[in-house]
Fold each of these.
Amino acid sequence: MSRSVSHFMTTASLFLHALILSLTIHRAISVTDAPKYCEPVTANDTDSVLFALNVEFLEAEFFLFGALGRGLDSTNPGYSKGGPPPIGGQKALLDDPVVARIIEEFAYQEVGHIRAITRTFGGYQRPLLDISRENFARFFNKIAGYSLIPPFNPYANSINFLLATYFIPYLGLNGYVGTLPRLIDPNSRRLVAELVAIEGGQDAVVRTLLYKKANETVVPYKFTVAEFTNLISARRNFLGGCGNKDEGIILPNQKLGAENQTTSNVLSAGANSLAYARTPAEILRNLYGSGSESKPGGFFPKGANGTIARRYLTG
């Protein structure tokens, strides 16, 4: 068997494994009415928008440290409102100058998002965040199904940082898509519309950069870039527990693509190429890495902040 055929078969097998995992969850939930834990949360505009501040803090710190080697407490003292400093942030070796400039821009955008939300709705202390390479390594071990050697390090190079980034802005996008229709005040709706536009843009940029290298192997692992994205997406579906709302950058067949005509999946979308929505509970299950909105861990060792997140923690 030729090397190219062997590689194709391995790639197809991994894609199908991730796809089957996602579709199995989707079918299990679709055959009955959506259980309560998949329903939108009941909350006022303020609490709904402030929930998103957790993700904005996470994005800001990860991008600031990755691009500059320092976080909010250095660039914008006071924005954390006295919250504990993040665990494990460090400057990434962004060996691609284009990626380096983009991540720096993302970082400043997230600072603006925090300012916009807190000026409109108040805010809360930055929760304790774990953006250490050890935390990311644990996550990537889960998606791979075994302990990667060496442990995955998001700060090691541009591709690793983009793969780590792939996990985060998309959840922010899902959250805003789910929140927007439930907001009452026009000012709240306008702010979230403005936020979701940038979150969607960030996700599109990250996916495009990864798509350009889709078939490249992520050294020293056996997975290609596309395979990693499919596995990450399958993991998000699994943790969210509310169906298929995620796919990697290349699909295993055209019937899963836009208008059933393409295997490219630069923009993740559902029927009619519309964006997926996720509830706060689904997002917390992913950010905690536990599959439970009541069991902190992952990026939020002590849980997220705000009325909605704390409600899940206190029962």
Amino acid sequence: MADSNSSKEELLQLIKRFGAYLSVKMSTLFSISSQNMNTRSIGAIAGFAVAIVFTWRLFRSPAGPQRRQPKRQAPSSSSSGVNSPSNSTLTTTAVSSSEDTRAQNVVDEFFQPVKPTLGQIVRQKLSEGRKVTCRLLGVILEESSPEELQKQVTVKYSVLEVLLEITKYCDLYLMERVLDDETENKVLSALEDAGVFTSGGLVKDKNCDTASELKGIVEVTGTYPWIPMYHNGLKEVLFCSTENGRTSFVRQLEPDWHIDTNPEIIFQLSRFIKYQLHISPTRSERATSNVFNSPSLEQFFGCV
């Protein structure tokens, strides 16, 4: 190590001396005019420059391997360095994948079809109809005949929500055939107890112009026993003594929809009423294109 250091110092001294000599020669050379400059002096200078370059490279060569040694010891550090970016790449990929999944879920939720409300379904099913007539037996009441009504009156509570939505968009007329005044009072009391008059927009009032109009019609047809009215605007509860009386009610009111359980009345009115809904536990073939079938009113509107 001492010999190499002394040789390096001697070489440095030699280079310094040569540099000083070269400076003197260069100053002398530039002081001479270009006309007096010959090729030999230029060649000598070039030779000295080449000698300096080779000497400098020779001086650097012994230190080369020592400076490269750290690079030879780098595999462990480089491998760890390679692993580190790899791990970071995996982590970044996982985070990106998670963000993409969340973004996709947000997009799917945003474009997911919105479930329509009952009110929207009612309006769609009724085809924007504005007037509806509906019988009570088998549709709003559990009983299926006037004879059963003489014993008891049971309101289907599952249908009340549908009635409320219908009264928001349509004029609703409820009607039924009864056998006596007592049965009529029972029906009205049951409807009132169930909240039909309050939640359904029906208010008791017997002073109604429609009552007198319908009275004249049923007197002509011979089917006029009772016509008490419970109304709010054009929403009433009508009673008659025969099935023909209910048919007359419907034809006079000219609704957009009529809802009934009697297939004969449905067939008779199919030529006069725009749409009809036949409520029956057994599915029957559609007699005409404007007649629809359903086991219940609430099932027709998708509530069951």
Amino acid sequence: MKILAILYKGGNAATSEPRLLGTVENQLGIRKWLESQGHEYIVSDSKEGADSDFQKHIVDAEILITTPFHPGYLTGDLIAKAKKLKLCVTAGVGSDHIDLNAAVKNGIQVLEVSGSNVVSVAEHVVMSILLLVRNFVPAHEMIERGDWMVSDIARNAFDLEGKVVGTIGAGRIGYRVLQRLMPFDCKELLYYDYAPLPEAAAKAIKARRVEDLKDFVSQCDGTLGLVNTELLKHFKKGAWLVNTARGAICDKDAVAAALASGHLNGSRQVTPVMFGMSNLHPKTTSCVQLRTSLVAVTAWCPHYSGTTLDAQARYASGTKSIIENYLSGKAQEPQNVIVGIGKYETKAYGQR
């Protein structure tokens, strides 16, 4: 059986750090296991164009492994050529790069390692909130310039204590964000979700559910996701916005306009938390935008919040488990299944 993996090159970092499992060099740590069973395992970062390894090998691969950090875009046209393809595995969380409707139509299963990134992303959210509230990026850039004007930074720096923080969504990541915010003695923790948390879970984090989205954002000093021009009108003036979900959840132009006008005090792309993030680059980067009365500051970092070394260990192990279940005919863990055989098994990617 041919198994094709499209991963990213790790270069010297992957050579010196074998725990960078999600790289071409370290191959999710499963090459020996697969080859010991007689399978062919092709690993490459080449994914663009007809001459890419991706397009050359997809025609006769039975299993495709991809990653949200260097996605091989499996379109309907490519699926039509992939006559032997039966299983797509996302090493991580986020399968937007696969034409899921085409997968359903062609009987191809799509699975991801659900939960592998939740701790990593939740911690990244809290870090982003603190970066925004404490006005850290402009402070760092001031020192890089050799300046020392404390007042220029302090005039837009706040404590997290006493603020109202909310998450749009209180699932695996949103809930963990709220958990991690408890020690900061926020004025109130809010969440908006289509379903309420179990009573014991909500009580454990002292979070209150707000059922109307516009009412929700109007109460928050900071928040996560689902943001357009109309919704931004209901944000509390000076709020921070953090988005660690998919890029399309935020209208980047609307967020940029709100930053320019001062209606938003700051934004960072990273799950929906009502504390000031926006997905300003939907594919590969995270962005912090901080507005002061003098200048808008943007700081960029790679899309790495869900691929810490700990997260890589989780999604490498999960990828192996999914393939092992497939090869042995064992049932998959339900939370990992996006597309089963001929049907959707989740609404995580919208109504389809």
Amino acid sequence: MFVLVEMIDTVRIPPWNFPRQLNEAIAEELNKKLANKVVYNVGLCICLYDVIKLEDSYIFPGDGASHTKVHFRYVVFHPFLDEILLGKIKYCSQEGVHVTMGFFDDILIPPESLQQPAKFDEAEQVWLWEYETDEGAHDLYMDQGEEIRFRVTDEVFVDTSPTGPAAAVTETPAQPGQPAPAAEASAEKKEPPYTLIGTICDPGLGLLSWWNS
């Protein structure tokens, strides 16, 4: 679930931090920059593990801060494929079951990856497993807040870096008195930078209450 990733970055230390120990100041700046951020194709950064190497520091003309090239290791949340994880159901929608691990919310279990047969209850806004027994079918609901065990099947990274004003230039100007729907639509469509796709359609996976009772 958690891995150590070796990284290299140039850290800027402002002058008011010069009296501090260099390692402490660098650790603080790295955590400010990376903690709780997603690095593309790497994962969700959690915290600094250690500093491996510090290269020479430089002060450039016009900037009173020091700049140091740092080799360091960072703790990153990046589960491997087929890893079994434990989370809680955040909410359900037509897209599937959305799961949170407390510090990471972008986990989706699509409908085809639920225990089958499954159906979506529109009134309750929850998915349920129509569990067949000798006495007939029992509806096992996947309620919000329930603990769920799932297997990671895929991961999706999205580059959310700013793209600049090029898209705005190509848009057709709106007629007087008419809104600009394209701008509103692009603002609403905000994809998470890192998403995990899971499944619970294997024995032992799903709500913990299903298998404990």
